[in-house]
Amino acid sequence: MTAASTRETKTWELRRPERLLLSGCLLLVALGFVMVLGAGLAAGRRLGPLDLLPLLTYAASLVVIHLTLVLSRSRGDQILPVAAAFLSGIGLLAQYRMGAFEGADLWGSVRLIFPGGVLVMLVVCVAGMRGRYRRLAAWPWVWAGLSVALLAGVLITGQRFRGGIYGLGLITPTELLKVTVILFLAGLIDRDAKVLGKWGRPLPVPPFKGLLPLLGFWALLAGLLFVQRDLGMFVILSVALLVMLVAGTARLGYLVYGVLAATGLGYLMLTLFSHGHRRIQAWLAPFDDPTGTGWQVLQGLSGMYSGGLWGEGFGRGNPEYIPIAESDFIYSVIGEELGFLGCAAVVVFYLILFGRGLRVADRIGSGFGMLLCGGLTTVLATQTFLNIGGVTKFVPLTGITLPFISQGGSSLLAAFIGLGLILAVSDGEVAKRRPQQDKPKRRRGRADA
Amino acid sequence: MTPVDPSALFGAIVDSEVWPILRIGLQAAFFATVVYLVKLGFDLRSLTELRHLGRSKRSFRVFFIALTILFSGVLLYQATWQLTGLFRPRFLTFMQAYDRRQFNPAHRIRRGRILDRRGEILAFSERHGSRVLRRYPYGPAFAHVVGYSDPKFGASGLEAAANAYLNGAVADSLPAWGELGRRLLIREQSPRGQDLKLTLDTELQRLAVRRLGGKRGAVVVLDARDGAIRVLVSTPAFDPNRITAGLFRPGRPETPLLNRATQGLYPPGSGFKILTAALALEQGFRGTRHCPADGYATSSRYRKIRDHEYYAARRAGRVWKGHGNLGLATALAKSSNVFFARIGVEYGHAAFSRNLERFHFDRRIDLYQSPYGAWTMRTGRAPEIARSDKYGLAQASIGQGKVLMTPAHMALIAAAVANRGLAVNPRLVATDPPVPLARFMSAAAARRLAGMLRKVVTEGTGRTIDIEQPAIAGKTGTAQNPQGAAHSWFVGFAPAGRPTLAVAVMVEHGGYGSATAAPIARDLLVRAHESGLLR
Q1: How many A×B Cβ pairs under 8 Å?
Q2: Looking at the DSSP assignment, which residues form a beta bridge with residue B155?
Q3: Which residue, of A62, A372, B225, B354, has the greatest Cβ tally within 10 A?
Q4: Is residue A350 within 8 angstroms of chain B, CB to CB?
Q5: CATH number of B267-461: 3.40.640.10, 3.20.20.10, 3.30.70.2740, 3.40.710.10?
Q6: Coil vs helix vs strand at B172
Q7: How far apart are CA A203 and CA B219, in angstroms?
Q8: Which of A35, A302, A309 sits opposite B101 (nearest CB)?
Q9: CA torsion sign, B508 to B512 to B518 to B520?
Q10: pLDDT in tens, B307-359
Q11: ipTM for the complex?
Q12: What pLDDT digit, counting tens, does each position of B34-88 carry?
């Protein structure tokens, strides 16, 4: 009993930075709430007791995150939860500001998304820590099967909306592919690393025989995603595939072949399908049809221009003029209300998040854990880049959400599960590395020296 | 102490005058917290190291650096819209037309005024509620030059070509850069653009509109020495204060949107004889040509080309004796079709098309240009005449048949004759420096041609407008056309001794040049003389 409580006191002490930083996030979001509520009052809205609920839920969630990690004696990364808390806080403010919580009752589903996501993250983290996550690598093809089943299920039961196919109630269960496919890839590449690393000599030809199962699965995935018109998801997963192949086999050649394949596929897509062609048109020449194809991105940019360097102030802009502002275009709402500096802050915290995720992968060094962390971080980074790049007209619009910030339960859930897995991996191993000794601290010190 | 309801207290604060300041304070505190968070995380970095995981392999280091560069690129690109969107004219136009955010600075830009050479206001912006509207005090008089700027229909004319400048996005001096930077940092209530000063003269321009009356036509007056355009009128015009969808409906015969002065292609009639005369002078024409009353024929199969005296006499039931032998100066003064058709055919097809090439046919000339657009005039259209088609060549040499010209091109040619053969690029904006365009003819040819054109007014077809002050030189034109009565032309310059202003007047279906176009040109030159423009 006392031994256990001393260990917990140690973790409490260890996780002091996390505690301080999470308090900072809470302060930040509280300030934002006062701004939004004030702007609402000034615009003639009435405040009710429920209006403070999102802030309280947020605060409670942060406390639960910290306490759970302390009580489970997690040695996992402390910056990742902070970065996620910062981004979700901004997202919560933006959603609240867009009126997402208006009219929702005490237990409205919209109120449960964030705490629910946090809860799932913690469960995944605690379940996977102490190296238990390795069990996920046992049967990679189960994850592949699950991915295909998810896709097929949505195709069978789903409904068409805005050119794509969505699940019942416009939920997108395919968001979970971002986790299942990465688990599959991490497991498979870890198992077959030797075969996949054996390239032909002297010609740099990849081992097609070893790659065959992977390529077959990828073709199936591409086909199903294409029927769904979910090009963005395919791009995200393919980038992750390339990064994981290179990281797992140390063969840069995969990158070269991947870029070649991407160029060819991209060209094919554009020439064959009007859906993609329209988006390219809107990207390259939005002013040719400003009230049609260019409308959405130009409205978003107009909002940002209107925000300028500092922004209008939270709650004072007019993001309602941007179509689907609360999901895909949430970044331009931030640009309008918090200005360029607000956007820069968001990007900085995304980079911190990715940097930490990749650092965990680097420290793990090799094997399933490294591939998992690298893959999950790559998915988040690619998703963020495609969304922010699309909104700012840097790249064509792909219609995907911004992790942790955009509205959308499935997307948030997938991001939190991914984060939970990275946190679990970052807790490290128990086996071999810690024999029956009571002073693990010494060993750690030696490993560092 | 009684307990205070926090929500009521908050409401009172929001309603009070402190709130705007408090709001800015809150936002500052928000950003300060972000900075503090990053700093705190950096300070605590040694405590958050994942030492238990072992040494870093750094295999993802390059990937992370690539990510950082990529996202920095996105932010930089974003800044070109969010911070310096002012430099994207189409973006600005889009926002002014379609953005409904009343806080958008694009709506509050008071575009610079457009002024005439004396500072008379031709266009200005006025606050109207939350929007800024564009007003044009002279209505249709400057519609084609200045154009319109309308939230619904976009912009045309100089309003479009000089859009960035008028919006204040072209920083050409240190204070202008300072102003731009200030606009970026603090959100000014109504940023001001830069004024654009034109070379036009409001008094002359309005006189030209009045003299054209309800007729369709065009007037161009420009300074032969430096290309400054003083008058550029096309009638009928539209009212830029009231742009409606009906204006853009096709099939209106009066085509108010067409700038007849710079885009309208008309048969030039006898005015073209200036060009043929220039060719003759360059070819070293000497002596006389016989011009029989019965006319000139290139072949027995075609109609004869005859002088207008022949037809006048026939209508009166008399027989005309003919000009007999004519020299170049007299032929020009009497506007002899027979003479010019004859020498045109004499010099041949190649010389004819070389001549048109030298006079800059089939071109577009920028009267104003910016990186975002240009205000252009087109020159005449050179006809394609087959080598075997002598009749077509004879017709073209007297400005009939397939050769077509714009009034602005005619004025430019008159200006070149007045300016010793050198054409100066016409310009609309006072601050643009004069730039030579091309040499249309040798100085010697120009000097002789100028003398001949003076003779047209003192002794020839232009006698009706021969006045003491100013001494006018020029050429009348009466251009047959298939649509109806002849177009009436006058092309010339004044004062004849020391040419300053060149002029071209064209009235659609106005009849004889000497009767309709020439008096308009005279009135304009007299007024210019009175107001000191001919000095």
Answers
A1: 233
A2: B149
A3: A372
A4: yes
A5: 3.40.710.10
A6: coil
A7: 76
A8: A302
A9: negative
A10: 988 988 988 888 888 888 999 999 999 999 999 999 999 999 999 999 999 99
A11: 0.89
A12: 999 999 999 988 888 888 888 887 788 899 999 999 999 999 999 999 888 877 7
